[in-house]
Amino acid sequence: MIFRIIMLLVLSTPTICLSQDTMINGKVQNFENNEPLAFVNIGIANKTIGTVSNKDGMFKLLLNDKATKNDTVTFSFVGFKTEKYLISELKQENNSIHLHPENTQLDEVVISSKKIKLKSKKIGRSSKGLGLNHMNFYTVHEKDVDDRLSKERGMKFKIRKNCHVKNLNFNITSNDFSSLKFRVNFYKIEDGLPTELLLFENIIFEINNTFLGWFKVDLEPYNVYIKEDIQEIAVTLQWLESVKNDETSKYFSISTAASPLSTAYFREKTMDTWTAASQNLSFYLNARCE
């Protein structure tokens, strides 16, 4: 009798987990002109479920066995209002998602009204080290390269001065891809973990032809200024798109070293929980600071 009651309770629970193979797909567009929106962040918070739309605004969101019909799928994109839908509100195929542009008023950034001499500064680790350790974007849990969409890796940087960031540099130690696209994200840090985005513009760059060695991302066109009252920031690379060099391609890594005084951040999917590790990637900013 007790067994039958327990079974009835389980069957009547409204938050039934979904099949591991459930897929939600569709297209994300600008509400005002129906133009497709490329590389929109799409995910469910803290459930390792996430992706980004492709260059045509199309997306495929694979749900794992942690997902329930009452979970919220969030669509987030710089310059647009965030939209949220329950899984139960979305069809499995051909969803049409429209994001409304957000009129963001940017604050004017003035480092100082006085004539001061700005000093060139490297923020982060500008050494390759011995090249014995590597931070790889690939994990054994992934079935295909597309599983990496929206994944992020990066570092904590201490600023403590007003700085104009000129470029981001990192050392690539393995690269099996003929083409890769990443987004550079700058975050505030609260309670030791990345939180709010600091940028109001997408910084997207491409790496071609299985490039190895130091790679520089020019940030001058984006006028990235960090005020001294922020003090600590997280800078990450987010995987957006890739083309394999051949069928066996899977590795892309950056040199790193264990360091109790440094903090690396990573998360498997957008909107997932951040993890911190005592690592120091070969990953640094060139800046001009007071």
Structure description:
Helices cover 3% and strands 47% of the residues. 32% of the residues are buried.
Structure characteristics:
290 residues, mainly beta, Immunoglobulin-like, Jelly Rolls, 2 domains, eight-stranded antiparallel sheet, seven-stranded antiparallel sheet, 1 helix, 22 strands, 3% helix, globular
Between the first and last Cα atoms, what is the distance in angstroms?
75 Å
What name is given to the CATH topology of the largest domain?
A: Jelly Rolls
Poorly predicted ranges = 1-15, 108-115
Strand content: over 45%
CATH class of the largest domain: Mainly Beta
Strand segment tally = 22
Helix content: under 10%
User: What is the CA-atom radius of gyration, in angstroms?
Assistant: 21 Å
Name the helix and strand elements from N-terminus to C-terminus, one letter apiece. Answer: HEEEEEEEEEEEEEEEEEEEEEE
**Helical run tally:** 1
What number of structural domains do the residues give? 2
| CATH hierarchy: architecture of the largest domain | Sandwich
Describe the secondary-structure layout.
Blueprint: H1 2-11, E1 23-30, E2 41-44, E3 49-52, E4 58-62, E5 72-76, E6 83-86, E7 95-99, E8 119-124, E9 133-136, E10 152-158, E11 163-175, E12 177-190, E13 193-197, E14 203-208, E15 213-218, E16 224-226, E17 232-244, E18 252-258, E19 264-267, E20 275-277, E21 279-281, E22 283-289
Parallel strand pairs: 1-7
Antiparallel strand pairs: 1-4, 2-3, 2-5, 5-6, 8-22, 9-18, 10-17, 10-19, 11-15, 11-16, 11-18, 11-22, 12-13, 12-14, 12-17, 18-21, 19-20
